[in-house]
Design a protein that fits this description.
Keywords: Cell membrane, Membrane, Transmembrane, Transmembrane helix. With about 280 residues, the chain is of the alpha+beta class. Helices cover about 55% and strands about 20% of the residues. A 5-stranded antiparallel sheet has the order 4-3-2-1-5.
């Protein structure tokens, strides 16, 4: 008994830390399990067509984002509870501490304006559905795939593999490239004497055939369009073609359409890709 009395406070603190840790682990596991169950239940229906698949993928990203934010809230809440309990065990007058919370809040607000700004911006980003985990975004400071959305920091991995941690309060604009559709733009340089109508017919046909091969038949998409001549000089006439594709397939289809257009031009003897004019410079 003497040992317990002598080490009562340290033992109670250790017990509180253990209890809070276990509680946090259980709550985090429950959140993740509920998220996985929600994704599985919604994944068993509504995936018979391209729209259903896209909706399911969007739901998965949304669920992961909400799960990440919920886990962060649980962790910080448990930490706050543990701190309050430990302070009580150490003999700190919590009543007086709470009574002075107004002054403390004012001091913290003044000293932690950036933190509060980051937290509020993060909550608005999530609630307004500006981005989700797995989205391809341009956040100004970095462009890449969102790996996590925290209460204070959003992590984005760029094309080179660099992981950027961006404070939510510093994100003033977000370009989301994973929502709905994107547009592939092909600028094809041809020789100046090219018959534009023939080039339009051949390249458009190649684009249509490639989209039919690369996408399910029920995928909603607009017909490819030839914008026309967008540049002209002594060495080349540049013709622009566009095609709307599902946002998640942009880069795959961009490569496929460029390859198909190039091959169609090479296979037709009436069309020739132009060689850019190089101007020599002297120093």
């Amino acid at each position: 008994m003497g040992f317990l009395n002598a080490y009562r406070v340290p033992l109670l603190i250790a017990f509180v830390c253990f209890l809070v840790t276990v509680n946090t682990i259980v709550l985090v596991a429950v959140i993740r399990r509920a998220t996985a169950r929600l994704v599985r239940r919604t994944g068993t229906r509504g995936k018979d067509d391209a729209r259903g698949v896209a909706a399911h993928e969007q739901l998965v990203r949304r669920a992961r984002t909400a799960s990440t934010v919920a886990v962060n809230i649980v962790i910080w809440t448990q930490v706050a509870i543990a701190v309050m309990v430990i302070l009580g065990l150490l003999g700190v007058n919590l009543t007086a501490l709470l009574a002075s919370a107004g002054v403390l809040a004012a001091v913290l607000t003044f000293g932690a304006q950036n933190v509060i700004k980051d937290v509020m911006a993060g909550l608005f980003m999530v609630f307004e559905d500006q981005l989700d985990v797995g989205d391809l975004v341009d956040a100004g400071m970095a462009t890449g795939v969102v790996e996590s959305v925290g209460i204070r920091v959003t992590q984005v991995r760029d094309l080179t593999g660099m992981l950027w941690s961006i404070r939510n309060g510093e994100i003033v604009r977000i370009g989301n490239g994973t929502r709905s559709w994107r547009r592939v733009v092909l600028d094809i340089p041809l020789t100046p004497d090219t018959e534009i109508s023939l080039a339009t017919k051949i390249v458009t046909s190649a684009i249509v055939d490639t989209l039919a091969q690369q996408l399910p038949s029920d995928t909603p998409s607009a017909s490819p369009e030839c914008v026309g001549v967008v540049a002209f000089d002594g060495s080349a006439v540049t013709v622009r073609f566009t095609a709307e594709v599902p946002a998640t397939d942009l880069y795959r289809l961009d490569v496929a359409l460029r390859t198909a257009a190039r091959q169609a031009i090479i296979d037709d003897p009436a069309l020739t890709l132009a060689i850019p004019l190089r101007v020599a410079s002297t120093v």
